[in-house]
Write a structure and sequence with these properties.
Blueprint lengths: L15 H14 L3 E4 L4 H13 L3 E3 L9 E3 L13 E3 L4 H4 L4 E2 L2 H12 L7 E9 L8 E7 L2 H10 L1 E2 L1 H10 L3 E6 L9 E5 L4 E5 L4 H4 L2 H17 L2 E3 L1 E7 L5 E7 L6 H5 L11 E6 L3 E5 L5 E4 L4 E5 L5 H10 L5 E3 L2 E2 L5 E2 L30 E5 L16 E9 L9 E3 L3 H9 L2 E3 L11 E3 L12 H14 L5 E5 L18 H12 L6 E2 L4 E2 L14 H7 L4 H16 L7 H14 L1
Parallel strand pairs: 1-6, 3-19, 4-5, 4-10, 7-9, 9-11, 14-23, 23-27
Antiparallel strand pairs: 2-3, 6-7, 6-8, 10-11, 12-16, 13-14, 13-15, 16-17, 17-23, 18-22, 19-22, 20-21, 24-27, 25-26, 28-29
The structure holds sulfoacetic acid (SAT) and manganese (II) ion.
């Protein structure tokens, strides 16, 4: 039988709590070998070699795409599985109607049966990681146990993984315990369980993305949001971007959008040619941990160290930085191949697919060549606009918080909340059309408060209350905005060009923060008039701008009523102050 003691390891810094836990999991799962990850380059290369030998990774054309690889997941395992994701709190009310719930004892018993002996003949990898800069007081550590080498290399790119994390865990004592096995990849034996009260995660039966890279959504959002509530901070589904204006001042924005709505593109934005002098720096593209700072401002760190971005649609026009970044040192999952063994995806604008994402000869009757949720994994350091502040232990001060969704109507291009509490309503009201990032029908409008519907580790009622409490603590709170890059006209065409031109909207926000831009007051908040936006060099019809910057009171009365009904689902846990915001909105719309 395999035990932790039976396997020599080169790390001297293993603390007793970690050692004991690994030992007990090895007894349960019966691996053939145990590998303690040290996070070294040699280890990474070794794992990559093994994955190629086993056929799990294909080397891409080394001349066109040096050090790039392709992984194909099981065709039934291509996205997050929200219906199989549970938050297991003692009291079901604490998980809330926004989560699937299971009693902790029942969930542990169910998972124990699945994990029993599941690593026979496999290697158990121990993956210590730190979410956030290794020397930041805001960072939190975890250990993922997994039987997937693919998961290990993703964690190596996505987190600060290895020896330094293990040392920090030894000093701190507490860490998030994440147990993962790919099992048989049987969708009927697949569960992603969270135990926020125990700081534990158990994931079985999937090898994909947010289901398996436990540092990401499971730890940095579901467990961390719960921890953050107890400790007085926020764990959010937000990118963090620094914008340097032509005067040389840099301000930071944090922005929340649902999965596959352009967070990575906004975080890596390239200013349009008609906005000379602007520079953009990426701090993070998916997750922000926000702390009230000693000066009364809100500070953000990115807990991650890499990007797990959507590939389709990436081209030199939509995101030149990403397009260039993923030409080397990148791990692709579920893209197609050309005859040259180059990766190919829809929206690439060039090349011809010959092998689809499942490894079959490409045939349009099978659908797209690359899976719509195909991904790149790459270290954030490869981003040409990587912000030097991304490694700052105290984080960056946030001037504006932006919420957004993918909506063909109702929501204008941009509006500003009246104050923090109204901004919490604006965030809580986010609705968005579903995407391929999660299993289920795409294009269906659903409420996705703060873009956290799949990720809040506790009751949304309590979560909104916590947002209000954080605002009350901030002497200089960020202003709060809502944007909609996805508004369409009667012919279903996008009204706004998006991508780099989104900087025009961000510039207006920053000017508002500095008291240097005007707006018109409407029932839903402050909107720019066309003349308040920098539209130099932009070819856009006046009628399009009019639609983008209009508020239809009738539509918004329906919207406000719907929001009120949604809040009712959370009963007494919905804060009175938020209900008051809905009523005030309804009065302004009457
Ligand atoms: O699969 S992930 O959760 O990592 C990506 C996403 O849906 O945002
Ligand atoms: Mn995300």
């Amino acid at each position: 039988m395999a035990t932790a003691a039976a396997h020599a390891h080169p790390l001297s810094s293993i603390s007793k709590p970690v050692g004991d836990w690994v030992h007990s999991i090895a007894e349960l799962t019966q691996p053939e070998a145990i590998h303690w990850c040290d996070g070294s380059d040699a280890e990474y290369r070794q794992l990559m070699t093994e994955l190629q030998q086993s056929g799990e990774l294909l080397k891409l054309n080394p001349e066109h795409f040096p050090n790039c690889f392709l992984a194909r997941s099981h065709p039934s395992d291509v996205a997050r599985v929200e219906h199989l994701t549970f938050v297991c709190t003692t009291n079901p009310e604490d998980a809330g109607p926004n989560n699937h719930w299971m009693a902790p004892a029942d969930a542990h018993a169910k998972m124990r049966e699945l994990f029993k002996g599941c690593m026979k003949g496999r290697t158990l990898y121990v993956v210590p990681y730190c979410m956030g800069p290794i020397d930041s007081p805001y960072s939190r550590c975890g250990v993922e146990i997994t039987d997937s080498a693919y998961v290990v290399i993703n964690m190596a790119l996505m987190t600060r993984m290895g020896r330094a994390a293990l040392e920090r865990i030894g000093r701190e004592g507490s860490f998030v315990k994440g147990l993962h096995s790919t099992g048989e990849l049987d969708p009927n034996r697949r569960f992603i369980m969270h135990f926020p009260e125990e700081l534990a995660i158990e994931s079985f039966g999937s090898g994909y993305g947010g289901n398996a890279l436990l540092g990401k959504k499971c730890h940095a959002l579901r467990i961390a949001s719960y921890q953050a509530r107890n400790e007085g901070w926020l764990a959010e589904h937000m990118l963090i971007v620094g914008l340097q204006n032509p005067q040389g001042e840099t301000h930071y924005i944090a922005a929340a959008f649902p999965s596959a709505c352009g967070k990575t593109n906004l975080a890596m934005l390239i200013p349009p040619g008609s906005m000379p002098g602007w520079k953009v720096f990426t701090v993070g593209d998916d997750i922000a941990w926000l702390h009230p700072g000693p000066d009364g401002r809100l500070y953000a760190i990115n807990p991650e160290a890499g990007y797990f971005g959507v590939v389709p649609g990436t081209n030199p026009k939509t995101n030149r930085n990403a397009y260039e970044m993923i030409r080397r040192d990148t791990l692709f999952t579920n893209v197609a191949l050309t005859a040259d063994n180059d990766p190919w995806w829809e929206g690439l604008e060039g090349g011809t697919p010959v092998i689809d994402w499942q490894g079959r000869p490409y045939d349009t009757k099978h659908g797209p060549a690359a899976h719509p949720n195909s991904r790149f994994t790459v270290s954030a350091k490869k981003n040409p606009n990587y912000s030097p502040e991304a490694d700052s232990p105290r984080g960056v001060p946030i001037s504006a918080i932006v919420f957004g969704g993918r909506r063909r109507g109702v929501a204008p291009l941009v509006y500003e909340a009246r104050d923090w509490n109204h901004g919490v309503l604006v965030g809580a009201s986010v609705a968005s059309e579903t995407t391929a990032a999660a299993i289920g029908e795409a294009g269906v409008l659903r409420r996705d408060p703060m873009a956290m519907k799949p990720f809040a580790g506790y009751n949304f009622g309590d979560y909104w209350n916590h947002w209000l409490a954080i605002g009350a603590k901030l002497k200089h709170p960020p202003r709060i905005y809502h944007v909609n890059w996805f508004r369409r006209d009667a012919n279903n065409k996008f009204l706004w060009p998006g991508f780099g031109d989104n900087l025009r909207v961000l510039e207006w926000m920053l000017k508002r923060c500095a008291g240097a831009a005007e707006a018109t007051e409407t029932a839903i908040g402050y909107l720019p008039r066309a003349k308040d936006l920098n539209l130099a060099g932009l070819d856009i019809a006046a009628s399009a701008l009019e639609q983008l910057l209009s508020v239809d009171a009738r539509e918004w009365r329906t919207e406000a009523a719907d929001m009120g009904r949604y809040m009712d689902e959370f009963g007494a846990r919905t804060p009175a102050a938020l209900r008051a915001e809905v009523q005030a909105l309804q009065q302004r719309l009457a």
